[in-house]
Structure formats: C-alpha cells, structure tokens
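Anyone? Bumping this.
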Amino acid sequence: MSNEILILKDNLFTTEGGKAGLLISTCKDCNASVFPPKPFCCVCGGENVEDATIYGMGKLRAFTNVYHPSPESRMPVPYGMAVVEFPEHYIRITGLCTEHDVSKLSVGMDCKIVVEKVYEEDGKDVLMYKFQPVGEGA
Amino acid sequence: MREVVIAGVGIHPFGRFPDKDYRDLGREATLMALKDANVTWPKIQMSFVGNVMSEMTKGHQVLNYFGELGNPIVNIENACASGGVSLWMARNAIASGQCDIALVLGVEKAPKGFIANCGYDRWQMYTGMGANPAHFAMLTQEYAAKNGLTKEHLAQISVKNHRNGVHNPYAMYRKETPLEEVLNSIMVSPPLTLLMLCAPNEGAAAAVLMAKDVVEKYTERYVTIAGCAFTAKSPVDQIFPDFSVPTAANIPFVTERCGKTAYDEAGIGPEDIDLAELQDTDVGLEIRAMDYLGLVKKGEIARAIETGEIEPTGRMPINVSGGLLSKGEPLGASSMGQIVECTWQLRGDAGPRQIKDAKVALCHTEGAAGNCSITILKK
C-alpha cells in the first residue's frame, strides 16, 4: 500500500491524469510569464493574465548539484538542480534535477517535467516537481 | 544636490573574533573613522548602520556608547548591499541638505557555514532548493558556457584575489592559493569549489561623510562621491528566492542598471575607472560584474583573465584588496570594506596594494533579492 501524499505548497504542479505539469501564468499583453502563477503581470502590472500548465519539453540552460545539506533541507545528498527554459511559454524555471552527475549533462538537452517523491515525513510521501534530462547521455 | 565627500574611514579586520561582540567591532571601526576625519562623535548629525544578523536597534547599541546625541540612527538591512545602501542614504541626506556630517557603519558577526533566512519559502528550503551556492553555481556555469570560460578561468579569479589578499592586513586569509589548490578544494556545487566561494565572517568598516562645503574645516584628505546608486532586482534577474524568469521581458540585468545610474551621475564611463572592488561572493559574480559594468570588453573576459588585465599591474585592477574571497564576507560590512580600500587607494594610503596614480574607483556589492549598490569615488 502506498503512503499518503504530502503537498508542501499548492499551485506549483499538477499530476492530474497521470501527467506532470507546472503551473504558470502568462500576460496576454506582454507575454511575460511567472511560476508559480499570479493574478497580475510582474512586468507590465496588468491583470490580463492567463493561467497555463506546462507539459512539454524544455531546454536545459544550467545545472549543478548539492553535496552539502542547506538550512532546513530534508533532502538526502547529493541531488541535482537545474534551470530549464520553455520557449513556447516565455519562461525559465529553477528546480530539482533527476540527474546529479553533471558529467552526464550538457546545456541544451531536452528535459521533461516529472513529479516524484523527494523525501518522507511522518509516514507521508512529500512530492515535488523535477526536471528529467532525456537527451543523449542522460 | 550638494557634493558629498568621504572625510575619513575606519575598519576592524575581517575574520573570526570569538572574544568580541559585534558592538566591539563596530565601535573600533567607528572610532578609527572619526579620528581619520578629525571629528569628535558629537559632530555626527545622522548615522546609518548596515547589518544583517544582529539584534533590534543594532546601530544604537554600537553607537550610543559614544554618547546619546539624540540624532537619527537608521538601521538598514539589504543583504550583502546593506553597507552600500547605508552609504547611499547618508549621501542622499547630506546632498539634499538634511545634514552636513553623517556616519556610515557596516558591521556583522555572521555564523560559519551556510547563510540562513535568505528569503526562501518553506517548500524551497525543505526540498533542498534553498542552497545559495547551487544558485550561484548555475549562474556561473551558464555564463561560463556562453563565454568560453573553463574551470581554470574561474579558479584564476580565486588565485588572483588570494594573492592580492596577502598584502591586506585586514583580510582573513592571507595566503596564496595555487590554481591546483583551488580546483582540488572540496566541490560545493559544480563548477564551484570551496575556494571559489567566500566565507561569511565578522568585521566592521565605517566612513564619515561630509558636505564638500564643510569638509575643509576638518580635513584636506578627502575623496569625492562622484556617483552612488542602489537598485533591486527586476523579474529578469535569476536571483533566489524567485524561481522563474520571464524570457519575453527586455530589461537589463540589475548590475547593468545600477551601474548606468552610477556612471550617469558621475558623468563618466567604465573607461575612466582606474580600479574596482567587485562583489566576489563566488568567482562568477566578479566575472559577470566586470562584464555588465563594462570594465572588461564584452566577449573578451577569458582573454582579460589570461593576460593579467585585471591583476594589480594590469589595465583594470579588480579586487586589489583581496576581495571577499580573501577578506571573508561580514555581510553588513562588506560594502564599507570596499569603500575603505578605495578611499585609501585614492589618497595614496594603500601601502603595498597601492595602484599608482589611482584617480577614480568603483565599488560594487550585490546579494540576495538582487540588492545592488554601486559607488564611484574620485580623487
């Protein structure tokens, strides 16, 4: 039997229908996007924004890993982190990366969005979005 | 606006001082600055105190020891730029005529290791994404990849700053670190090794600011604040705790915007700068700052590092004090440490670190939430 799920923050990601997606909002006037979504545009200040979900592939722009636990982290080390760009949504997003071995990564690789258990707390599975590089060598 | 000058500076060494309170550090730097400016404490009409981690009314706790003047003491927290923002506020107060003489103090007693409380949300911290060095690493990795910089180029910045720090009696690490030592030190977050990151520590630095029209009553050994700017991040700056950047927005990075304000105010450009102290929290930030401030030609950063252009003997000496990599980073005090160094350089008081004929110097600090302060001093 699988554990109960613990969501640390609403409005970050979705797993509805078994598909992992990131929640953003995009300004219909200036195309500026933000993650997690907001009811206004952080660039032009307008309220003509539309919520959207990113399901598609992104491009790996930057990556690293963490060997030493940071303040209040519950994560086992090492783990990967990455910045991934989604050009059709006009946004770059920072997040965890499924691959922590940076020798297997290169800028420009395709990345898909996954939602995985990252640690367990009080018998519950804590879920978080991650980027999974799927290009050659990943 | 009235012209504003730095009439005197003081510093407490940056390092670890288990037997001293932050108040002791702040008072030592303040006293040194008062003496250097040839003023006594009751002449100070306003005080601006930059600090990140100490208690409530920290500035009052440091300064009231000298006597409770009943004058404004403003306590300022703006991450690594706290000291620079304090200077900016003091400059503004004098320039606008609110007062003639003000004290600026940066002081810090930071614990060892990771800096906590950097503005992250709970979900970011619990899942390990509140790791500052990882965010620095990704900015540096992307910039290096785009600009053809190798790990050796990155390491060379640390080698340079540690070599410069050997000559600075106020620095924490006064030992050269050869390239191999930098590259082989503990890997923190690739491409950044331990010796490519600065260490939070303790220290204090201060300056007495005066209106130019009163300074000559006290001292002739002053330097002029030619430009002074403070800017926070915009959405395009990929700086924690924000986790997204809108690629459709066309806004220059925070360093570039802050630099432009300071250059415009000073009526000069990067070609007029003789030396610069740039925030080297990690080696990559120093490199990006020299690029975004136009101190080194675009696309020629690798060449500048290879040819010694940014060494003390080169065309554009960067961090001749040893930078934060050798001084350590007492957050609230780091900006004012740069101001002390550049004031000495422009007065010809920098001893073995002296850059010959230095006439214009630039100080840059940048930290959490993209708080960026830039001050241009001239002889």
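Late reply, but here is one note on the structure posted above: Strands of chain A lie at 4-6, 13-14, 21-27, 33-34, 49-54, 58-66, 79-86, 91-97, 110-121, 124-133.
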